[in-house]
Batch of 4 targets.
Target 1
Amino acid sequence: MSRSYDLIVIGAGMAGVAAANMCASRGWSVGIVDALPYGGTCALRGCDPKKILRRGAEIIDSARLMRGKGITSDGLAISWADLMKHKHGFTDPVPARMEDTLRANGVDTLHGPARFTGKNNLEIEDAHHTARHFLIATGARPRTLGFPGDQHLVDSTDFLQLPELPQRILFVGGGFVSFEFAHIAARAGSAPTIIDRGPRPLKAFDPDLVHLLIARGAASGIELLRSTTITSIEKSEAGYQVTVDRSGRTETMVFDLIVHGAGRTPELTSLDLDSAGVAWDEHGVHVAPHLQSTTNPAVYAAGDSADTPGMPLTPVAVIEGKVAASNMLNATTKAPDYTGVPTAVFTIPELARVGMLEQEARDQGIDLEVRHHDTSSWYSNYRIGETTAAAKILIDRTTDRIVGAHLLGPDYAELINVLGLAMKLDLTTRQLKSVTAAYPTVGSDLGSML
Ligand SMILES: Cc1cc2nc3c(=O)[nH]c(=O)nc-3n(C[C@H](O)[C@H](O)[C@H](O)COP(=O)(O)OP(=O)(O)OC[C@H]3O[C@@H](n4cnc5c(N)ncnc54)[C@H](O)[C@@H]3O)c2cc1C
Ligand SMILES: NC(=O)c1ccc[n+]([C@@H]2O[C@H](COP(=O)([O-])OP(=O)(O)OC[C@H]3O[C@@H](n4cnc5c(N)ncnc54)[C@H](O)[C@@H]3O)[C@@H](O)[C@H]2O)c1
């Protein structure tokens, strides 16, 4: 059946669903389509299932930290199959629940791969729809690495579905995916290795804190090889034989599983964007700051598939989905405000950031005061036996405002939200320090960090 809509959203992930619900609530006729079950990457193949698996790893690690301090952790282990069942208990109901909510809000839920056939025309399987507006919210996929044997790589989606965890695991790429998964795998009894092509992994994070995290990971059994690029994989009797270029030398190693953690690229190739006159490249759909296509005014883009200053993260996808919807509804040109959007790598302990890196702040000529503390001996960390924790808060001396904050420690991904809030509301550090936290909580460490 073919229909004419005010808006068709392509992609039922965080960005798409936020926009579809908002436009339907204002009386627009809205269709949303996905080629996969509804929910997108975050709920089904990313943030949420990943952090459920991490819970098992947290418990193992917490018990180990308390060895000799009243806890006997011998024999404590993760049952991977049971942990997976726990994960499915959350992920399995998501698609039906999400579709039910959309339909209850008046949104038509469509299925199948979507493809443009004109500036206002979209084909979904055999149905041809037209719309006044489109939102491209198709997310991202692992980028093609293109070396001999790359078909043997599994991606993050495969990893989160593994029926069992093998012993020798190689993670290709020293970014979010590899670090988070390696920290889970190490506590589940595997021996993970991460390779990164550059000298510095986790480049989006504070180098001093990354250095501490790498040492903590090494103590938990995670090997990191820097300046190492994978060049081929061959299947052999002993496992997958991996050849790497390590600072100019060729080396081979054998693994049971090789996981792609070497970056993601917008999912746009199957959309036939040229038929709609939509400009795009490997960074995403080309959009103006208010998220409208630079070449087809009927089209907007949001989330991982849009080329915007926002990082490819869930909160950014939600902000952009809502801003795109608001601009379509009201014919406005408001740009998203990314101020104070934090990010965290859910390693153990977790590494978090909001605002600028120290080097970025120095490059901008900000009169910077760096409040840098080793917090490993502070009460909150002593209590749980954590040995690695630090905070680095960057303050503009002339305004007393936080321009960046970097934290490594247990529960610090919660604490970074408070620093993000302070940045968003333009609070001075003096105002932030005037807030009283319940004691003893991790939040009550914030005053001393400042
Ligand atoms: C392993 C992993 C862990 C992550 N963890 C975190 C985290 O802890 N915190 C965080 O903030 N971010 C995390 N992210 C990033 C986060 O998941 C993404 O930034 C976010 O989900 C992007 O949302 P989106 O709406 O732009 O796209 P998506 O959620 O990816 O949704 C896009 C949808 O479009 C559909 N689609 C694509 N092409 C078509 C087509 N042609 N026709 C129809 N449908 C189509 C897809 O099937 C998909 O459902 C993680 C990512 C991964 C991979
Ligand atoms: N906690 C979170 O918020 C979270 C978790 C997972 C993923 N994500 C999102 O997903 C995106 C993709 O994550 P990712 O970890 O795949 O990518 P990433 O961009 O975080 O890291 C990729 C790393 O791989 C390295 N690399 C690239 N090609 C390589 C090669 N051939 N050999 C060796 N190293 C190579 C890069 O130098 C880089 O350090 C992230 O940018 C992030 O936005 C977020």
Note: Residues 47-65 form the longest helix (19 residues).
Target 2
Amino acid sequence: MTDAAATDVTQAQDDDRVEATDADRVEAPEIELQARPVLVVDFGAQYAQLIARRVREANVYSEVVPHSMPVAEMLAKDPAAIVLSGGPSSVYEEGAPSLDPALLKGGVPVFGMCYGFQAMVQALGGTVAKTGLGEYGATPARVTDTASVLFNGQPDEQSVWMSHGDSVTGAPEGMRVTASTAGAPVAAFEDDERRLYGVQWHPEVMHSTFGQRVLENFLWRGAGIEGDWTAANVVDELVEAIRQQVGESRVLCALSGGVDSSVAAALVQKAVGDQLTCVFVDHGLLRAGEAEQVEKDFVDATGVDLVVVDAKDQFLSALAGVSDPEEKRKIIGREFIRVFEQAARDIVGEHRGDNDHPVEFLVQGTLYPDVVESGGGTGAANIKSHHNVGGLPEDLQFKLVEPLRSLFKDEVRQVGLELGVPEGIVWRQPFPGPGLGIRIVGDVTAERLEVLRAADAIAREELTAAGLDRDIWQCPVVLLADVRSVGVQGDGRTYGHPIVLRPVSSEDAMTADWTRVPYDVLAKISTRITNEVREVNRVVLDVTSKPPGTIEWE
Ligand SMILES: Nc1ncnc2c1ncn2[C@@H]1O[C@H](COP(=O)(O)OP(=O)(O)OP(=O)(O)O)[C@@H](O)[C@H]1O
Ligand SMILES: O=c1[nH]c(=O)c2[nH+]cn([C@@H]3O[C@H](COP(=O)(O)O)[C@@H](O)[C@H]3O)c2[nH]1
Ligand SMILES: NC(=O)CC[C@H](N)C(=O)O
Ligand SMILES: [Mg+2]
């Protein structure tokens, strides 16, 4: 299940850590889709993006907006409907985010969940109070009208996921109460005339048995939305939005050969064809065989116009002596941009005479998780600065083209399949842009990279041989360069470094669990790494989920 809980993990104070500041916060996406959106108003919820995602699963386009956005601005987006999220506050407290009653009078269908439900009640003149009857987790609900818009055709007893301490003690006038629980006599209400609906629970989490059905009923029946938004529509809309944004300008695409940039490149290719040049940076932090694979196999499979830049020395010298993860990420983000700037100058030079248009735009395969982890969500904490978002330098001259910025990886894979991107690329495991640079705990040197590359190649080879590639989301292999332990090899003492295996299963990288790789496969990897990589005398397995751990160690 997806959730944004990871972004809420409080970071331990550490004087050596490069602190994330407000300056790290990132701007809203530049590309906007043309379908009328369903706006998810975020009241500080754990699950705002999850709601948006569930709306898209109902084939309706959706975007998250902060509760602080003025109503006029929300209505200016011409929303097809509005969903109000949950949130940690209590509506009757001073300073709690409130709902402007004007939003409920704009003629747009509205659906409130939990805090959003309570905020509707307050705005409509009902009452909310702390009753001492909080409900947390799976809760039996009684539906009192199984023919209503929300509950049509559903059983009159269903299990819903609750997380509330406050309850509605007085329903607003004109609202029909259609469900109740022990702690929330008013657990759902509906008003078909004003097209206002709400539930006290969280239909967006999979533990609410009929959650998706309730949401779909609101969207399709209550709001009368067609539900025709599919990967095919999104391709058309994104292509059109890219054309609008880019015009006649030349465009560079930062292409890693990974899923996201390949799909982004395919979209831009479709939109502005020969205005596009892809740039792949070999920063010396790649895995064994990767540069060759992108240079040859990728071009063979897609036919893109690709420039490969060898920037190994530039990155390694910029990273020399740096061990702080955030500092590494910012250096890598900056050096990437410096490489793209140079490439832009070279490309303009090449085309001088037949093309006067400078390279104004840089395409990146940024996804929503990159944005939210970099602190770009509504009030979300900075967990780590992804090189392509929070790691961008302040003096960035390019305008960014990031068509996938509000999507999750599994949605991007659907878009990729729709575009005909080869399956071998669509189903590739993710590999982070900062590469092995954030898998060496300690500073990055050419020698350490060699060690890690050798261990990583063995782990990948054995996991592939065991047929586990599609079961595993990705398996970072991490070198603890500043840790040494004693071993005995060939009857002699060794004092080597540990390698950590971090196989994880996930749907979208927002949450993850460690993969139960069979012991015999782990044994083989361990034996081979310790036999074949001289500097390593110990292999350990990371058995932490996300949260609390992140997938990468840095
Ligand atoms: N070596 C590289 N050369 C050029 N651009 C890169 C490189 N590595 C990353 N990027 C850029 O940074 C973006 C973010 O990297 P990220 O790893 O999240 O995505 P990806 O590599 O496209 O897909 P995946 O998540 O499947 O690895 C990429 O989409 C791409 O635009
Ligand atoms: O392109 C990227 N630039 C980055 O700076 C970066 N940091 C993490 N990752 C990848 O993002 C996903 C979530 O990773 P974490 O759980 O470690 O935050 C995982 O798939 C990670 O591999 C990155 N990708
Ligand atoms: N999850 C929520 O939206 C909770 C709403 C409110 N804070 C309550 O406890 O009732
Ligand atoms: Mg990648």
Note: Confidence is low (pLDDT under 50) at residues 1-32.
Target 3
Amino acid sequence: MPHSEATREFAPETYPEFPTGFPTVELETISLTKLLTDNDAAEADRVFEICKGRGFFYLELPGCPAGDIIAEGANKVAAAAEDVFKLPLEEKMKYHIQGDSLDGYKLAGETKTDKAGTGDTAEFFNLGKNEMIVPDDQMKKPWPEVVKASKPMFKEYIETAHGVGQFILGILAKKLGVDPAEFANRHRIEEMSGDHIRMTRGPPREKEELPEIQTPSHTDFGTITLLMNWLGGLQVWSESARKALLLNHEPDVPVINLGDAAVKFTNGVLCAGRHRVIPAPGAQGKYPRYSIVYFVRPENQCIMKQLRAPGIPDGPQEEKDINARDWIKQQAAGLGVQFQAYKN
Ligand SMILES: O=C(O)CCC(=O)C(=O)O
Ligand SMILES: [Fe+2]
């Protein structure tokens, strides 16, 4: 059952503004309407340039139906996330992420953030795309009642976020001289893939000094990610500063970033930015931090090879074929060794 308004902890209307006084990384803003509705060539050029560089940008949503669905949908998904995270631990543990599955619950502390073994502080609940978009009788896994009750809403959010991701990949394909169908056919929504909505909750900040690692340094494994959060705390790697810096956070504006699969398909032409999450800085840090992420990933059976195209330099032939499912597992297994590269 939804909780009464008074007890809601996901309450974006009450959050203070992102504080001044912290060094930040400025991201460029791309208009979804210019891309989707106006077919704006200059905006498409900017997307390509950004994706060859930092690989992170803000996506301005208002002005088109897909933008409205993402803006409203992310708020609804976060409200549902609160209902999920408020379930008793014993109930959440019934859905604990197990084996090869990405679906379900991850406890805070399960991921190590440094060599000393310090645990992360974020709880996740992952909602697999292939579970949420199929009729109830085709679902393969058990889900909490609060998830089942909101399934049509999750489905709409998934379809829209996936469509926006596909559209941006189509723009990048054209710029690279790749037939857009080559990208589209590696990310068909109805095919099995590791795509999911990740609902995240991080506790309030304990100390004033940064960081307190909520989610350790990583690049996303998939192709493209759409990320919504309402409080600061996302840090991206700044090459010039040689450390991770906070984004100049803007509420209600999602961040788009590329992942490792986009780098692989383009032999390094496109870039996946490294990032991590800390509790929000300053007065924002008093609030638990929710984020709603949608990961567009290659289909499980997709062979992870670079595409051959005029805009992609030829690398050596891959020694053996590996499909996306195994490749992502391999990327995940390598995560631990990257922490040393991080300073706050
Ligand atoms: O919570 C955030 O703002 C980012 C989360 C993230 O990077 C991830 O889940 O991959
Ligand atoms: Fe990420």
Note: The pocket of 2-oxoglutaric acid (ligand 1) is lined by residues 198, 200, 215, 220, 227, 229, 234, 275, 277, 291, 293 (CB under 6 Å).
Target 4
Amino acid sequence: MKVFTTPLIRDADAYTIRHLPISSTDLMEKAATACAHWICSRFPATVPVCVFCGTGNNGGDGLAVTRLLRARGYTAQAWLVTSADRLSPDCAINRERLEQAGEGPVMIRSATEFPLLPAGALVVDALLGTGLTRPLSGLMRDIVLRINDLHNPVISVDIPSGMYADQPPAKDGITVRATHTLSFMFYKLAFLLPASAPAAGKVTVLPIGLHPDYIAETPTPYQTIDARLIRRFYKKRAAFSHKGTYGHALLAAGSFGKMGAALLSARACLCSGAGLLSCRIPRCGYIPLQTALPEAMCLCDEEETHLVPGERDDTPYQSIGIGPGIGQHPDTVRALEQLLQGAGSPVVLDADALNILARHPELWKHVPAGSLLTPHPKEFERLFGPDADDFARLEKMRKACAEHSVYIILKGHHSCTCTPEGNFFFNTSGNAGMATAGSGDTLTGILTGLLAQRYTPLETALLGTYIHGRAGDHAAAALSPESMLASDIIDHLGAAFLEIAGTDMQH
Ligand SMILES: NC(=O)C1=CN([C@@H]2O[C@H](COP(=O)(O)OP(=O)(O)OC[C@H]3O[C@@H](n4cnc5c(N)ncnc54)[C@H](OP(=O)(O)O)[C@@H]3O)[C@@H](O)[C@H]2O)[C@@H](O)CC1
Ligand SMILES: [K+]
């Protein structure tokens, strides 16, 4: 799903009004109807609804939602927060409609007029939307602080009031902390970035009928990854195929005390469909790996505890994953260099392979074009330095991917893949239970397994992050986010693949 910046959302709105055609008031009615419908489907009419409105179109949405909920039998009350009486035209129309339907909004002109809410009320935040031009101050700030002091569920319309959609939060800036945000038509960038996303709570994208031609034809560097995108390139296994069809993967992983990382990535690689897997490991890992994963082949290094440069290996691997648990021994640095020099095609680099790269930037010249790097934020910082904010980090990712012709998957709640062309894909599957030891090793294995099956590096990044997240979601549903382990993510990869393949695959 495309993610547009606020100026483009405004363009989409204007294009829709012109070409559908539809009046701006009717478009607001559609947006408000979608919100009211969502509320009705989750909260019974016995729940009182308190709607806090501003004077722009976000406030207009709130006034319309109040009227629509009342028409469906809810006790809904609107408050209009303003120190002046200047309303946007559609906000004014909706104030009038609410008055005509019975009772208009109650004015709040000072923080002392903040009402005592009925017990168990649902709060709707329609103070400010994408028209935010400056950090909150004065009355608006006071009201938002009052809302944040409540213990009631808070639904933000379009975006939490005070949150910038396309720029970092202001220093000392405050926003409504929503339990749920109903975002019109698209995710906003802020919902996908760690500094702002938590305040949006759970985000639901509500279609409001913006013109499909505009959406299809307008380019944007930002997209979310969802099942529809994945199904465009997911390849079902052919009936007359053999293990060679699905590629031979090589994983260089593990060191004394960290053989678990090698084992997790190796199992994840095979469970993602690679035809054959060879594991390049230090000698100490031979028995555990062969015992726990008999399906994998082992290439043991001369050294007992860590990877060292070895004999030339001319096997034509379809993919090479390097990094989980390898440590940073000077011999291992040379082993990494040798592996990179010998790799004729894109590789997957993770964990200590990235840390070595950060300390030995001279190795960059050996990283094959199209390779996939999977840093978490700390590893990213070691590689490219610290950033002032999430947006500065996106820009740094864009530059690094272009300079080195690689794909970077920055791991996080919404793992973000950046391409050499400067496009960003945010993953939307997964959950907080995946913040657990070995989860990253699992992703490396999945990516190496997909690359072996001749998915392109971009397809590998998109399918890999998505399926990793979905497997994590299945694991969390079965075991709870607290109890699930990285090996449970691997155990649920099957359910995730079946989901993508669709029902006809399950027979
Ligand atoms: N996408 C779509 O297609 C659709 C979008 N719709 C809705 O429209 C919303 C965008 O509406 P909008 O442009 O009127 O902006 P909105 O945020 O309501 O208010 C702007 C007002 O706030 C003021 N203001 C700004 N900063 C401030 C501050 N810090 N503290 C105090 N005031 C501040 C600013 O005043 P000024 O800067 O001039 O002083 C201006 O008066 C969007 O989020 C969605 O809900 C739907 O209705 C239909 C379809
Ligand atoms: K809002």
Note: The chain has a mean pLDDT of 96.
